[in-house]
Amino acid sequence: MTGRELPEEFVDGYAGVLGDVAHTGRRLNRQELQARRAAGERAAEAGHSLRALVNAHLAVTRASWPRTASAPTDSVLAALAQAVDALAGGYERAQHLAVRQEEAARREFIDDLLYGGSDLGRLAERAERFGLRLSHAHAVAVAEGSVAYSEADPVARRVQQALVGRFGDRQMLLTTKEGRLICIAPGDPAEVLAYFARQAHTATGGRVAVGRTHGGAGGIVQSYEEALNALELAERMGLGDPVLHAADLLVYPVLTRDRQAMADLVRSTLGPLQEARGGAGPLLETLAVYFDAGCVAAEAARRLSLSVRALTYRLARVHQLTGADPADPVHRYTLHTAVIGARLLDWPAQEL
Q: What's the family (predicted)?
């Protein structure tokens, strides 16, 4: 290779072109430029640096420069500039293609991982390439804001930089799917996902849900679905917490496991509220806020922007219509369960 860092194949034909240019003063033609672009692409694909590629061509230029060139020096230098530009263009094109292929492979892996529709053995092999070991137990956190996010979004990059700066390489994967930020990390320790939740909430101003920790690739799918269900549940139930944990919300799926029984409870317990002026909505909201406030009338009145007297009147009206007294511990449990069921079933907006 005589002083050059690359194999001869990457500079093949260049010396002859340079000699012809030195005698004629012409510029490189389309075929010659394409040959340099192709050399740049091959060098990038082979893992050689652009600096080494350019240095190899400069070395050929010094060694092959004719001592009795007919053309001005400027012409030869112009041809050299053309060659270097073509080399760089081909090199960058190969790099861009490699980046796009890597992005496509990463996106395909994430889709397969979160949908659970791929061969587990093959999925485990691909996972290590992206920093995950599926033999470990993982949990998934999902963050959503008022807008959709992509991996190139500044918000996603800011959250990732914060995570890497805090934890370094902890075999975690930050990505986006359907406009949401997603973090997959080993479930123990849970500090990675807790930190992600804080950073994502600050960056998006939205809500974050964390699924439970499960083992294997199927466990990641399950944790992801738990986080999505928690976000949907929070929206339906009007939960105000910025960070939700699926483990804390297990009672809600239990309550709706027998949907027909829950619908019957809502109809029989809260159905009479529809006879009130303005329908069931205002009294149902009053009950929900009253229970959320720990059945403290003063706090519930404050949250509803009502006087305590007005709140007490509404509770008395509920008692009158339903026969169940919110202040009675026995009745309170039935009413509270029915209110939760109404939220879950979107009643009275939806017919039961």
A: Belongs to the CdaR family.
Indicate the length of the chain as a whole number. 352
What whole-number distance in Å separates Cα of residue 43 and Cα of residue 45? Answer: 5
Please calculate the CA angle 277-343-328 and round it to the nearest 5 degrees. Answer: 70
Q: Measure the CA dihedral 146/147/151/154, to 10°.
A: -80
pLDDT in tens, 334-345: 999 999 999 888
Q: What pLDDT digit, counting tens, does each position of 95-105 carry? A: 888 777 777 77
DSSP assignment string, 78-140 = HHHHHHHHHHHHHHHHHHHHHHHHHHHHHHHHHHHHHHT-S-HHHHHHHHHHTT--TTSEEEE
Q: CA-to-CA distance for 201 and 213, rounded, in angstroms?
A: 21
| CATH dotted code for 122-249 | 3.30.70
Q: How much of the chain, in percent, has pLDDT values that exceed 70?
A: 94
Domain boundaries, given as residue ranges, for the chain: 8-99, 122-249, 256-344
Residue 4 structure tokens: 């050059």
pLDDT digits (tens, 9 = 90+) for 86-131: 999 999 888 888 777 777 777 788 888 887 666 666 777 777 777 7
Q: Quick check: 181 and 149 in contact, CB under 8 A?
A: yes
Q: Residue 351: what pLDDT?
A: 84
Q: How far apart are CA 113 and CA 109, in angstroms?
A: 6
Angle, helices 30-45 vs 50-64, to 10°: value is 130
> Is 149:204 a contact under the CB 8 Å cutoff?
yes
- Neighbouring CB atoms inside 10 A of 325's CB total 16
CATH C-level class of 256-344:
mainly alpha
Residue 182 phi/psi, 5° resolution? -130, 135
Q: Record the tokens describing residue 190, joined without a space.
A: 């849970």
3-state secondary structure of 304: helix
pLDDT at 2: 38
Instruction: Answer whether 0.90 is exceeded by the pTM.
Output: no
